[in-house]
Amino acid sequence: MKPPVFEYVSPASLDDAIAALSAPDAGDVKVLAGGQSFVPLLSLRLAQPSLVVDINRIDELATITEEGGVLTIGSLVRQRQAEHSDVVKKACPLMAEAIPFIGHTAIRNRGTIGGSIAHADPAAELPTVAACLDAELVARGPGGERTIPAAEFFTGFFTTALAEDEILTAVRVRAAGPATGAAYEEVARRHGDFAMVGVGAQVRLDGDVVAEARIALSGVDIAPVRASKAEAALTGRTVDDSVLEEAAQAAVAALSPSSDLHGSAAYRKHVAGVLIRKTVATAAARARENR
Amino acid sequence: MSTREITVTVNGRKRTAHVEVRRTLADFLREDLGLTATHLGCEHGVCGACTVVVDGHTERSCTQLAVQADGREITTVEGLAAADGTLHPVQQALRDNHSFQCGFCTPGFVMSIYGMCEEKKAGRPVPCSREEIREELSGNICRCTGYQSIVDGAEAALAGAGTDTTGGQA
Amino acid sequence: MAGGSAISGLVGASVHRKEDRTILTGTGRYIDDVQERGMLHCHFLRSSVAHGRIVSIDASAAREVEGVVRVFTGADMSAITEDLSFAQPIPGLNSPSYPAIAHDVVRFVGEPVALVVAESRYIAEDAAGLIEIDIDPLDPVMSTTAGLAEGAPELFGEVVPGNVVHTDEQLFGDIEAAFSQADHVVEQSLDQHRWACNPMETRGGVATYETGSGQLTYEASTQTTHTLRFLLAGWIRHPIHQFRVTANNIGGGFGLKFSAYREDVAVCAAAKAIGGAVKWVEDRNEHLVAAGSAREEQLTLQAAVKADGTLLGLRVTMKLDAGAYPINPPATVYAGLVRTTLPGPYKLPAYQFRHHIVATNKASYISLRGPWAVETLVRERLMDKIAETCGISPVEVRTRNLITLDDQPTKMITNVTLEHVTAAETFQKLVEMVDLDEIRREQEAARKEGRLLGFGVGTFIEPAPGTQEFWAAVGFPFGSEPCRIRIEIDGKVTAFTPQTPHGQSHETTLSQLIADELGVGFDDIRIVYGDTDATPFSMLGTGGSRAATMASGAVVYGSRELRKRVLEIATHILEASVDDLDIADGVVSVKGAPGASVPMAQIAMGCWLAPDQMPPGTNTEMEFVANYDGEGGGFSQASHACWIEVDQDTGKIEIKRFLVVEDCGKMINPAVVEGQVIGGIAMGVGGMLLEHSAYSDDGQYLTATFMDYLMPSAPELPEIEIEHLEFESDKVVGSRGVGEGGTVLAPAALLNAIDDALAQVGRPRVTETPITPTRMLELLGVIEKE
């Protein structure tokens, strides 16, 4: 279990990194951020790139800013840094709730926000958060910068809309306003494992009525899934047990997860419903507290 | 074969070496510097036996490359006890509680618990209850002990952290 | 408590471990820490096909890689080694021999097909990727049922006809009469999944061949240096007097490292062929795929019982999935252990046991901490089912059938004498500590709130070390245990044991015993292990939870003999009789006259340097090899109680409380005992709830990383409460082993608790493991089974 031979560069600027990625003779290039999934893939030789572009020295990617109601988290921000950031806790409580479910402390100390999103593991937390909040994913390539809506970003199992010569530079989300609450829950075989099912929910209330509901699930498809039917079932309603049940049923009916050793399809569907009820109830309660 | 020259401060000592770019930090510490306390239990980031402290934070040394450690400061288990053999308070607490058996996972646990104690000294929130300690230690796998004795040791180490002035050099 | 016990002073105290300073500072020498001069590195290319015929293998591109020293194909390796054979004169045992590296047929995913030796592991892996191998697939056999089916592909042709490695039926007592008298016949079955030892340090070794002297040294991560040496010597065609096997720190074994493996053969042969030092350390991926797994057994039981729950007879059938290749010990030992132990501490008048050991296209079936454990699991679950059938409580059914101290000595139906066995007493104590009525009230109250609680108990005996009769019934030798003890020239003590401790703290416990027996300081004692050049021969090393009795006995008797010699010399120097002398802190003195004393160092120095000048007629040999026969051996015992809560939404099981009452006799070091008990329970719990060495129907291995093979971590395990009984027999060494019992009994208490929870909501019992959240929701009827 040792990494294969590859060439390696560690540029100090984004431009240099993009230049390395887009060099005509670059071959199979991979970006190395926190490396918590990628380096194991190298050691297992499941990834055998010709060139690794290490972005860890690009300090400009490691900042968290909030401006004009928009929270921008640089892709190189460590998960642990975001977890303890007061700015993140306030502007993106869903992310702050979700991060502690990622692996373990030593993983989060190294793992990055952008790395997890670009890796696009369908069981991972941060892609689910991005999908839930309709985050904008900022990418830079040789042609310049573009933003990709989360709904278009996650295209399949470990695949994204990023071009091979693009780097994910930041995640942008609209800062949570008043009367908004968020909750993240997941069920994994062990503490810190990738989820069999995870659910992120964010609810904004208008009085007692749901003005906006956002729900996304991990572990139930080849990419994070928005529970749009459940969101519709909640919008304009007062959250109570029967509404939660209706929303959960609407969401679950639309799911077709696959089975693996850790959880059957039926199990995932059942738990998806359980977690939707739980997270939406919690998010709504928190929204009420934040009015 | 692509190589780089790197300079890393390990346990307070500056070390310069040529490394192949694909070499993991763990292999660099173990094979090139001879610091074999950092163990490899899985080489894919799950078992935690290779945990070291990099620039003040616990990290896995199997999931990063040696070249990435260039210019950084690393503490391994070899850096905790004093030169005269006096155990670091974390090590002593673990010894007092018969925390370990075969010893293979031990360096990773020692560094994780040391990391928790350093967090506490720095005034950051750390686990208090035994349940929280168990969760915080979930990134380290031990096959021998069932963890109870390790939680005992971690609890004692955390209780002492920030109150001691003697002990190890790191 | 009997008078014969030697034990006082340090023994009985939770003395700080000698091992800890080394392991806490990272100064140990585990196998991957070894760096010999010019050492080369190995990597095995392994089959990705479960069953197939090797058509061709081309390693020419691999041989061209810079830094590659040698590539061995199966044919290359077979030219310099003998096939591994574990055949023994056991009637009906079909034990195929096999090459270190496959050259004609591969029989499991992970079987070695080539060995690359290179300047680094990185390069060896690069080169392995360039080896082209063409395997013509054959149909794989992936279960005992498939293997026994009419027309099933035969893994080894006529060598293992019908894939049956061994089959046997044994009858004890009048089983027909038992069933004809029964008021009830209670049936139960269990299909246990495959799970694995998974020590944190995998297998591995460093073989160093000195071309000048012809000396070969193999430093290995092993539980048994001497057995490894004599097995390997033959297979690698090396004269045994020029072959030394050593072991230093060992990162866990749990039974896995008891055997010699084909990789050991290949690595030693490669070192000889190349003429230097060669290291192989199995990576976790290889370990999970190829090192072998345990526990895959299917059992069906029928119990004949009276209306009041009294056991009359038992019929048991076991199928054991042996995987492809035999290892040490032969699979008949596992079947023998299960058969012999299954009646446990219960009165059983009649018994029939039938087994089939079946070859399949999987990695080898290996020993795992209490390899007989399924007997306790099925028996204790059967007792609960008998209770339910007869309308009595799980406590009553056991109390009515258990053998108490008053019943002993008595014979198990399997012809094993039980004496000083206190399983019934541990169970009685457990029952006193638990209020069953209160538990039932709490369960009812919880159900009203929509919560589901379960409670389970179990009891058992652990053959640690077992008795002569027990091992004869199993079909395995019960050897005595040697120890060489030396009082050094400065009065300090070195003891050489064939044990190869890997976490069991023998350096500490044996030193405690020597300190007390010889009157020397704990820190003035060193325990030497893991060197066939230095330690006396034993086939067993560390395994079978023997050390607490056997290794302890050897050091006690050895210390006593040396003490006798020292005191005899001192009688002349101090002009006092032996009865008036005492040794403390390495000084022999006359009782009540502290001024009249002589340091042991002075006596030792005289004996080593000038034996002629020592008092005439005294024995001046300061070294002695003691052999301890175990004084007949004996059993440990324990009872467990487990409280769980089942989350009916997610199927997750939380262990709320776990109580142990154990009796391993006199505890040498209570902290060590508790560590063994808790660690054992953790392994049992992990095995039942999380761990699974899983194969697909076409023979691919599905859990090849720690992302998929789920080791229990701290949050998944409960706090465990332990009560010790410390009943002592009248033997010199009143200590019994305690290394395996936790893993043996905990699954029974846990599954009984799960069955108890299921019963409260009218659901059927568990018949298959592991109990994943999915399976739990299926059992609860919340989701459909796929």
TrEMBL record, chain A:
Keywords: FAD, Flavoprotein, Oxidoreductase. Gene3D superfamilies: 3.30.465.10, CO dehydrogenase flavoprotein, C-terminal domain (3.30.390.50), Uridine Diphospho-n-acetylenolpyruvylglucosamine Reductase, domain 2 (3.30.43.10). It comes from the Bacteria. Residues 1-178 form the FAD-binding PCMH-type domain. One of its GO terms (molecular function) is oxidoreductase activity. It holds the Pfam family CO_deh_flav_C. It comes from Pseudonocardia sulfidoxydans NBRC 16205. This is Carbon monoxide dehydrogenase. The keyword Flavoprotein applies.
Automatic annotation (TrEMBL), chain B:
GO terms for molecular function: 2 iron, 2 sulfur cluster binding; metal ion binding; oxidoreductase activity, acting on the aldehyde or oxo group of donors. InterPro entries: 2Fe-2S-bd, 2Fe-2S-bd_dom_sf, 2Fe-2S_ferredoxin-like_sf, 2Fe-2S_ferredoxin-type, 2Fe2S_fd_BS, Aldehyde_Oxdr_Iron-Sulfur, Beta-grasp_dom_sf. Keywords: 2Fe-2S, Iron, Iron-sulfur, Metal-binding, Oxidoreductase. Coiled coil: none annotated. It comes from the Bacteria. Pathway: Alkaloid degradation; nicotine degradation. Residues 4-80 form the 2Fe-2S ferredoxin-type domain. CDD domains: fer2. This is (2Fe-2S)-binding protein.
TrEMBL record, chain C:
The keyword Hydrolase does not apply. One of its GO terms (molecular function) is oxidoreductase activity. The keyword Oxidoreductase applies. Residues 25-139 form the Aldehyde oxidase/xanthine dehydrogenase a/b hammerhead domain. Keywords: Molybdenum, Oxidoreductase. It comes from the Bacteria. PANTHER family: ALDEHYDE OXIDASE 1-RELATED (PTHR11908:SF132), XANTHINE DEHYDROGENASE (PTHR11908). This is Xanthine dehydrogenase. It comes from Pseudonocardia sulfidoxydans NBRC 16205. The lineage of its organism: Bacteria, Bacillati, Actinomycetota, Actinomycetes, Pseudonocardiales.
